[in-house]
Amino acid sequence: MVRVAVERPTYRYVIVRFLDVDASILEDKLVAAVMEFGGIKGLSEVEPSVVHVDPKKGIAVIRVKREGLHLFRAALAAYEVPLVRVIKVTGTLRKAKAISSSLSF
Amino acid sequence: MRRFFDLLIPLEVLSPQTLQTIRELNFSGVGASLGVRLLSTNLTGSLENLKKVKSVGEAEGLDVVSRITVDEVMSEGALKALLRKFRKRVEVFSVHALDRRLTALACRDSRVDVITLLPGSRLLKGDLVYISEYGKGVELLMAPVQVGSPQSRAKALAYYSRTVELLQRKGLAASLIFSSGAASSKTLRDPRSMASLLSLMGLTYDAALDAVSINVERLVAECRDRLSGVVPVRGVRIVERDGEGGR
After folding, report:
1. pLDDT classification of A88: cutoffs 50, 70, 90
2. Residue B113, pLDDT score
3. Which of B25, B45, B75, B150 has the highest CB neighbour number within 10 Å of its CB?
4. Is residue B92 a part of any domain in this protein?
C-alpha cells in the first residue's frame, strides 16, 4: 500500500496595525475582504487567521498561507475601507511576536 | 534600498496629516497633482498651494513632485495651449486617456510625460511606438479597483490585466507606473500592497515593485533633468567635466 503524505502548508505571519476595527471582529472583517476580492477559491488560498492581538497597541499578527500572501495584501489594498496597515511580514510566529512587542505607537 | 513613489494624489487631498500618513506608509515621494479644473478656477492660489505642500512635504522627509494632470476632455488646441503655458512650471505633465484624439496627441507630443490609462482607454500600435520612443510613462490607477460597484471594479481589474499583458508583450514593462489616484487619505495603501495587487494582474512581484519605485524615480529624474537644462533636447545630455566646471 502506498501512503501519500499531505504536505503541511507553509505560513507567513503578517504584523498589522488595525484601524477603526474592533479586535474581536478583525478576523471576520479580513475574511470578508478576502472573500470580496477572491471569493471562496481565494479564501482557500489565503486562510487568514488572527493568531496574536495586542489591543492596547492596536497590533495583530495574522497568519496566512505563503502562496496566498500577495492575494491577501491585494485584497486589503482593493478593499474600499482601510482595515489594517501592514507593518512587516515574517516567516515565524516567534519573530512576529518579538517585532510586535518591540513596536510602540 | 527602494524608494517608493505615489505619483498621483490630487493637491487638495494633500493636507499635512495626509503627508504624514504617506510617510508612515513608507513612501519616499509623492506626486502633487493639479487638475485642469483647479488650474482654470484658481491658478495663483493653486500654484501657491503647490509650493506650500512641497515645503511641508520636504519637512516631513518626502520628495514632492509637482504635476499637472489633464483629467478632462478638451480639444487638441486647448491641450497645446496648456502645454505652452505650464510645461516648464511643473516637473511632470500627464494626460488621462479619456478621448481617442487626446490620447493620440498626448502620445506623440514629447512634452507630455505620462499617459494615464482609465478602464476603457485604448492604446493603438502607433501610440505604443511613441511611448517607447519618447520614454513616456504609462500609468494605471488603483482607485478604479477600490471604489465603485463590484462589476465596475472587476471590469477595471480585467482591463488592467489586458493592459499589463500588452505592455509586457511590447517590451514596455519598464514604463509602467502604478499610482493610487486617491480621492481621500482613506484610499491610500502601502506600496508593497499596491505591488501585490499589480502582481495579480500578470506581472512578477519584482516588476510590480518597480512600477511603484524605480520606474517612477527614473521618470521623475528625467523630467527634472529636462527642466534644469541638463537634457536640452532629446538624446543630448550636458555632462560637466571633473575639475573644469565647464560643459
Report:
1. very high
2. 95
3. B25
4. yes
Is B200 close to A74, i.e. CB distance below 8 A? yes
Nearest CA in chain B to A19: B186
In a domain, A52, yes or no: yes
CB contact under 8 A, B146 and A81: no
Q: Which residues of A touch B196 (CB under 8 A)?
A: 69-74, 77
C-alpha cell at B164: 499589463
Residue B64 lies in a domain: yes
The domain of B40 spans 5-228
Asked if the Cβ–Cβ distance from A78 to B188 is below 8 Å, we say no
Torsional sign, CA A69, B219, B177, B203: negative
pLDDT tens digits for range A35-87:
999 999 999 999 999 999 998 889 999 999 999 999 999 999 999 889 999 99
Residue A95 maps to a domain: yes
Q: Which residues of chain B lie closer than 8 angstroms to A78, CB-CB?
A: 142, 145-146, 153, 197
CATH code, A88: 3.30.70.3250
Residue B146 distance to chain A (closest CA, Å)? 5
Question: How many other CB atoms are there within 10 angstroms of residue B175's CB atom?
Answer: 23
The CA distance from A99 to the nearest CA of chain B, in Å, is 17
Enclosing domain of residue A54: 11-102
Strands B29-35 and A84-90, by their bridges, are unpaired
- Give the C-alpha separation, B55 to B59, whole Å: 6
- ipTM (interface predicted TM): 0.90
How many domains are there within chain A? Answer: 1
- CA-nearest residue to B143 within chain A is A78
Q: Provide the CATH number for the domain around residue B216.
A: 3.20.20.140
In a domain, A73, yes or no: yes
Going by pLDDT thresholds of 50, 70 and 90, the confidence category of residue A91 is very high
Provide the domain count of chain B.
Answer: 1
Q: Which of B146, B186, B190 sits opposite A78 (nearest CB)?
A: B146
Helix extents (H) in chain A: 26-46, 69-78, 93-102
